[in-house]
C-alpha cells in the first residue's frame, strides 16, 4: 500500500497551504478574483484570498489559503543525503583523524569568482563557526585555510597545490543568472584540465547548493542550507579513510 | 530628545576622539602628497570629460593611461593643454581621444594659460553641482516633515536599470524615503566606470552616470507625486571611489556608501590607494551636500556581533575623523552600525538597544545608519520577520536616522517586490505604534543596558589606545579590524598610486580645499 502524503492544516489530508504572491495588475475586486482563479489554475481545488494590498499602480500583493487534493507516495521519495547518517562531533572527528589518517589534514576554502559573500565559507571555516557549531579552524587536527571571497578558481587551485590540500571547499552564495553553476563548473573543468581531479576531495557549498547539484557538476559532495562544519568534516574524513588517503 | 540617558563619561568620549585624531594624522600626511589614477580620472570628469572608446574604455581612463609617468603633474593640465594646442572644443577632443588620439604626445605650452583654462572648466561643472545642491535643498524644504523618521531605506538589485526603476518606484510609493541601487557584485574591483545604461548585472546593477540619470528621473517623478523627497543612493567604494562621487555630484545623488577602510578590509583593495581615494571622494561628497554612509555593519557580519561591538565604535570614530578631514559636516556623516547579534543570546535585544543608544549619544548630530539582521537570518521567513520587527523597535526607541529595512527573505534571494512591501508595512506599524518611545523611556542607572554601553565604550578606548601605539596601517596588517589582515603593498590597485610631483596641479582639488575650508 502506497503511503500518500498531503499538506496538513488542521486535519489529516485537508491539503491546506498558504501562499503569497504578486500580480502585475492594479488592486480591486477584479484582481482579487484573478488571485483566486490563478490559485485554482495551479490545481488547488479551493482558494480563498485573505489579503490584498496595492504595492503601486500596477502591482498587487495577495495572501491566499488554498487546498490541494494531490499527494505523493512517501515511499518513493529519496532525500539529498541519508538522514540516518549523523555527523560526528568535533572531538570525534579529531579522534577519527588521529586514528585513521594519522596526520593533520589540510582543508582550503574560498568563495570564488566575483561572488563577494564570505558568509557561507566563514560559517563553515571560521574559528567561531555559526549557530554554536565551531568552524574548521577550531579543529585541532584540521589545518584550515579560508581564502575569503572573490578568489579566482585558478588561484584557489594553485593555493591548494602549494599547500598540499586534502580537500577544497568552494562556496557560492550569489545565484542570479546561475552564476554559481558557471563558477563551479569552471572550477571543475580547470581541475580536470590539469589532470588533478583525483588529487583533492572537492566540496561545493552555499545556501542554494544541494548534494545532487554538486554531484552533477562533478564535486564529491554539496552542502546547502542547515549544514555545519561537522557535516563537511565528517564527509571529508570518512572519504579520506575509505580511500586510504593517509 | 535627551541625549544623556546612559550617563556615558564625557572624558572617555573625548579621549576616543583625541586618539582618532592622532591615529589618522600620519595617514592624512601620506594622503596629502599622493594622488591615484582614479583621483585623476575623477578630476577629469569634473572638468567635463566624458565618453568611451569603441571597446568600452572610458575617455578619462584613456587619458590617465596615456599620461603614465606624467601623472605626477596631474591630468588636468595635460587635458587643458590639449584643448589649447588643438583648438578643439571639449566634445570634439573627447571624441578624438576615444578614437585613439594621445594627448600626452602634444608638447606642453604655456602652463599658466593651461591652468587657467582647466580652472574655468572645473568652475562650469561646479556650477552644475551647486545647482543640484540648491535644487535638493529647495525640495527638502518644500516637503519638510513629509519624510519618515527614521528615513526608510530600501535596496533594489535586479541587474537591469529599467527593471530597477519599476521596483524603485513601487518601493518609494510604498513608503521608502531612500532608494539604493546595489551594484553588480564585480564592480568594486573594476578600475574604470562602465558607460551608458546597462541591463546586465549579477546581484546588482552597474553604477554608470547614465543609470544614475535614469533612476534620478524616476525617483523625482515619485517625489512630485508623493510630495516627499526620495533620496537616491549608490556606492562610492571600490577602485573608483572618487569617480563615483563625481558622477553622483553631477547627477544629484543624495547619499553614498563611502567608508574609509571598507575597501581595504572587505575587498582587498590596497590600503594606500584606498586612503587616498576615500579622501578625494569624501571632499566631493562634502561639497555636493551628499550624506555618506559608512560600513561598520560589515565588521559584525564577519566577526561576532556581541564580542566585537567595540570595533564598530572604534571604526565610527575613525570614519568621523577622516570625514572631518575631508570637509564633511556632522549632518553628512551617516555612521553605520548594525543589529547583528546572535538571536539566541539572552537579553540580546537589550544589548542591541544599549549599543544603538550609545551610538546616538556619542554622535548626536550625525544621521546614524542602522543596518538590519542579515547574518542570523535563516530561511525561516516567519522568524525573520519577528527579528526585523525587534530591529524596527530598537531603531525607533533610540532615534536612529537612516533605517535600512530588513527583508524577511534575507539569505534566500534578492528581494521580491512583495518582500519590500511587507518590510515597509511592518516598519510603519512598529514605528507608528511606539512613535514617542524615545522620549518616554529612561534606563536604570546601574542596569544591564547602561552597563553594556559603558563596557563597549571602555573596550573601544582600550582598543584605540593600542592602535594609537602601533599605528593604523600596522593595526590593519595585524588583523585588528574584522580579524582580516592586509599588507601595505598588497591588495588590488596599488599600481594606481602616484606621488604628487613638484608642479602637481589639480583645479578640482584646490577648489574643494578652498570652499570646504580645508586649506
Automatic annotation (TrEMBL), chain B:
GO molecular function annotations of the record: cobalamin binding; isomerase activity
Top-level taxon of origin: Bacteria
Keywords: Isomerase
Keyword rRNA-binding: no
Annotated Pfam families: Lys-AminoMut_A
EC number(s) given by UniProt: 5.4.3.4
Ranges where the D-Lysine 5,6-aminomutase alpha subunit domain occurs: 6-509
Keyword Isomerase: yes
Gene3D superfamilies cross-referenced by the UniProt entry: D-Lysine 5,6-aminomutase alpha subunit
Leading EC class: isomerase
Protein name: D-lysine 5,6-aminomutase alpha subunit
Species of the source: uncultured spirochete
Gene, per the UniProt record: kamD
Amino acid at each position: 500500500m502506497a503511503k500518500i502524503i498531503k499538506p496538513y492544516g488542521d486535519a489529516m489530508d485537508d491539503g491546506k497551504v498558504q501562499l503569497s504572491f504578486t500580480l502585475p495588475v492594479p488592486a480591486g475586486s477584479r484582481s482579487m478574483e484573478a488571485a483566486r482563479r490563478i490559485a485554482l489554475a495551479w490545481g488547488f481545488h479551493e482558494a480563498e484570498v485573505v489579503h490584498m494590498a496595492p504595492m503601486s499602480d500596477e502591482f498587487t500583493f495577495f495572501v491566499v489559503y488554498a487546498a490541494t487534493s494531490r499527494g505523493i507516495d512517501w515511499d518513493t521519495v529519496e532525500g539529498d543525503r541519508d538522514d540516518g547518517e549523523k555527523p560526528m562531533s568535533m572531538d570525534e572527528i579529531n579522534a577519527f583523524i588521529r586514528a585513521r589518517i594519522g596526520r593533520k589534514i589540510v582543508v582550503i576554502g574560498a568563495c570564488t569568482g566575483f561572488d563577494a559573500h564570505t558568509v557561507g565559507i566563514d560559517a563553515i571555516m571560521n574559528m567561531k563557526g555559526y549557530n554554536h557549531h565551531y568552524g574548521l579552524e577550531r579543529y585541532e587536527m584540521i589545518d584550515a585555510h579560508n581564502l575569503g571571497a572573490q578568489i579566482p578558481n585558478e588561484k584557489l587551485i594553485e593555493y591548494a597545490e602549494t599547500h598540499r590540500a586534502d580537500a577544497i571547499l568552494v562556496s557560492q552564495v550569489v545565484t542570479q543568472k546561475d552564476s554559481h553553476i558557471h563558477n563551479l563548473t569552471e572550477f571543475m573543468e580547470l581541475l580536470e584540465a590539469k589532470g588533478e581531479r583525483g588529487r583533492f576531495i572537492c566540496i561545493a557549498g552555499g545556501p542554494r547548493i544541494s548534494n545532487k547539484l554538486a554531484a552533477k557538476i562533478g564535486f564529491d559532495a554539496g552542502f546547502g542550507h542547515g549544514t555545519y562544519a561537522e557535516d563537511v568534516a565528517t564527509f571529508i574524513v570518512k572519504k579520506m579513510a575509505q580511500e586510504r588517503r593517509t | 530628545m535627551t541625549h544623556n540617558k546612559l550617563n556615558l563619561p564625557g572624558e572617555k568620549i573625548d579621549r576616543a576622539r583625541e586618539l582618532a585624531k592622532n591615529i589618522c594624522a600620519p595617514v592624512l600626511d601620506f594622503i596629502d602628497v599622493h594622488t591615484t589614477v582614479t583621483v585623476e580620472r575623477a578630476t577629469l570628469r569634473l572638468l567635463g570629460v566624458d565618453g568611451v572608446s569603441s571597446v568600452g574604455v572610458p575617455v578619462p581612463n584613456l587619458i590617465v593611461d596615456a599620461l603614465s609617468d606624467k601623472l605626477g603633474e596631474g591630468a588636468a593640465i595635460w587635458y587643458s593643454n590639449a584643448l589649447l594646442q588643438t583648438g578643439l572644443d571639449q566634445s570634439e577632443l573627447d571624441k578624438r581621444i576615444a578614437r585613439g588620439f594621445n594627448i600626452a604626445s602634444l608638447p606642453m605650452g604655456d602652463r599658466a594659460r593651461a591652468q587657467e583654462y582647466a580652472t574655468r572648466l572645473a568652475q562650469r561643472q561646479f556650477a552644475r553641482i551647486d545647482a543640484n545642491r540648491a535644487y535638493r535643498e529647495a525640495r527638502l524644504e518644500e516637503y519638510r516633515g513629509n519624510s519618515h523618521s527614521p528615513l526608510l531605506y530600501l535596496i533594489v538589485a535586479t541587474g537591469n536599470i529599467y527593471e530597477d526603476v519599476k521596483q524603485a518606484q513601487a518601493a518609494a510609493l510604498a513608503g521608502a524615503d531612500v532608494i539604493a541601487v546595489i551594484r553588480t557584485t564585480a564592480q568594486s574591483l573594476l578600475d574604470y566606470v562602465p558607460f551608458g545604461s546597462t541591463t546586465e548585472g549579477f546581484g546588482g546593477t552597474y553604477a554608470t552616470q547614465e543609470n544614475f540619470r535614469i533612476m534620478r528621473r524616476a525617483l523625482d517623478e515619485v517625489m512630485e507625486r508623493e510630495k516627499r523627497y526620495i533620496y537616491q543612493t549608490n556606492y562610492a567604494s571600490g577602485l573608483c571611489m572618487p569617480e563615483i562621487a563625481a558622477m553622483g555630484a553631477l547627477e544629484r545623488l543624495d547619499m553614498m556608501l563611502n567608508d574609509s577602510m571598507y575597501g581595504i578590509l572587505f575587498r582587498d583593495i590596497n590600503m594606500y590607494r584606498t586612503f587616498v581615494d576615500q579622501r578625494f571622494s569624501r571632499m566631493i561628497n562634502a561639497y555636493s551636500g551628499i550624506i555618506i554612509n559608512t560600513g561598520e555593519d560589515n565588521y559584525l557580519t564577519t566577526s561576532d556581533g556581541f564580542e566585537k561591538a567595540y570595533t564598530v565604535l572604534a571604526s565610527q570614530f575613525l570614519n568621523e575623523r577622516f570625514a572631518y578631514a575631508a570637509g564633511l559636516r556632522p549632518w553628512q556623516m551617516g555612521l553605520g552600525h548594525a543589529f547583528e547579534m546572535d538571536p539566541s543570546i539572552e537579553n540580546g535585544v537589550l544589548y542591541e538597544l544599549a549599543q544603538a543608544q550609545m551610538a546616538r549619544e556619542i554622535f548626536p548630530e550625525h544621521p546614524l545608519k542602522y543596518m538590519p539582521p542579515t547574518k542570523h537570518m535563516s530561511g525561516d521567513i516567519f522568524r525573520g520577520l519577528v527579528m526585523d520587527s525587534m530591529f524596527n523597535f530598537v531603531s525607533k526607541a533610540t532615534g536612529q536616522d537612516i533605517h535600512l529595512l530588513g527583508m524577511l527573505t534575507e539569505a534566500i534571494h534578492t528581494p521580491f517586490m512583495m518582500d519590500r512591501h511587507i518590510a515597509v508595512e511592518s516598519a510603519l506599524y512598529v514605528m507608528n505604534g511606539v512613535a514617542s518611545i524615545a522620549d518616554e523611556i529612561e534606563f536604570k542607572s546601574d542596569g544591564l543596558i547602561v552597563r553594556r554601553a559603558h563596557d563597549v565604550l571602555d573596550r573601544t578606548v582600550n582598543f584605540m589606545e593600542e592602535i594609537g601605539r602601533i599605528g593604523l596601517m600596522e593595526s590593519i596588517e595585524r588583523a585588528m579590524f574584522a580579524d582580516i589582515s592586509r599588507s601595505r603593498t598588497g591588495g588590488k590597485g596599488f599600481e594606481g598610486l602616484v606621488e604628487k610631483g613638484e608642479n602637481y596641479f589639480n583645479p578640482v582639488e584646490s577648489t574643494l580645499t578652498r570652499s570646504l575650508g580645508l586649506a
